[in-house]
């Protein structure tokens, strides 16, 4: 019965996120997570034992995030099952960002279509970590597509995957790990030791969802395929491992295969050049119109992934 409640909550969460997104008028858990991370980073990220301090921060962060969700859901279910499902759905909806990611991508695409490079660079800088000040139209388009591809898993399907397993508390724990990685999981002098725990936890939790998402992305986007599914899957398994992240390459390689474009290449981070391996075959030059297509690929992937979770959950209900 618990799995069924999770599935109902997941489906309602996808609907809530599709309609409302993340209203600025409502408090958002990720903001609280960010404040906790900032609090500990300022006080602990110095001196010795920074590896241990990083693990301590993550332990506190995950306990607060998962505990907050568990208490709310426990109270709601003790009042009424319907209220419990709704509260769980609302919490899960705060861990995903289908509408927000699509809007962020379109906010880059619109000025780019009008030739306003400066505005497009500024909008892009809100959603990527790389330097955007010197990017041309093709590079801006590539960066946006890569962000949509990577965050299809990180920002949507992975939280849903963990919501199936452990409901909203586990989805919140995943989001806390991912937020920690995005804030301190860097290999620079400042964060190499302190952010180690966040980075490794993020790698571990994304291992299965990223691979499932890449496969589902290709399997469900027939209208956008420029080649056969077999050819796209060959590109996926050939190129996903080229990414410096053990997981991010699966979404990017899948998107590159679907659109018949090439992602990866030269990026700038904090003034330093990063030459990443290229993924996909450049059968079609990247252009601004690929951004909206990438958001359509993302949306179809999220809906089909939700159906996959129902199939997995249904099997689990039957065998137990």
TrEMBL record:
<keyword id="KW-0472">Membrane</keyword>
<dbReference type="GO" id="GO:0009236">
    <property type="term" value="P:cobalamin biosynthetic process"/>
</dbReference>
<keyword id="KW-1003">Cell membrane</keyword>
<dbReference type="GO" id="GO:0005886">
    <property type="term" value="C:plasma membrane"/>
</dbReference>
<keyword id="KW-1133">Transmembrane helix</keyword>
<comment type="function">
    <text>Converts cobyric acid to cobinamide by the addition of aminopropanol on the F carboxylic group.</text>
</comment>
<comment type="similarity">
    <text>Belongs to the CobD/CbiB family.</text>
</comment>
<feature type="transmembrane region" description="Helical">
    <location>
        <begin position="55"/>
        <end position="77"/>
    </location>
</feature>
<comment type="pathway">
    <text>Cofactor biosynthesis; adenosylcobalamin biosynthesis.</text>
</comment>
<keyword id="KW-0169">Cobalamin biosynthesis</keyword>
<dbReference type="GO" id="GO:0048472">
    <property type="term" value="F:threonine-phosphate decarboxylase activity"/>
</dbReference>
<dbReference type="InterPro" id="IPR004485">
    <property type="entry name" value="Cobalamin_biosynth_CobD/CbiB"/>
</dbReference>
<feature type="transmembrane region" description="Helical">
    <location>
        <begin position="302"/>
        <end position="319"/>
    </location>
</feature>
<dbReference type="Pfam" id="PF03186">
    <property type="entry name" value="CobD_Cbib"/>
</dbReference>
<protein>
    <recommendedName>
        <fullName>Cobalamin biosynthesis protein CobD</fullName>
    </recommendedName>
</protein>
<keyword id="KW-0812">Transmembrane</keyword>
<dbReference type="GO" id="GO:0015420">
    <property type="term" value="F:ABC-type vitamin B12 transporter activity"/>
</dbReference>
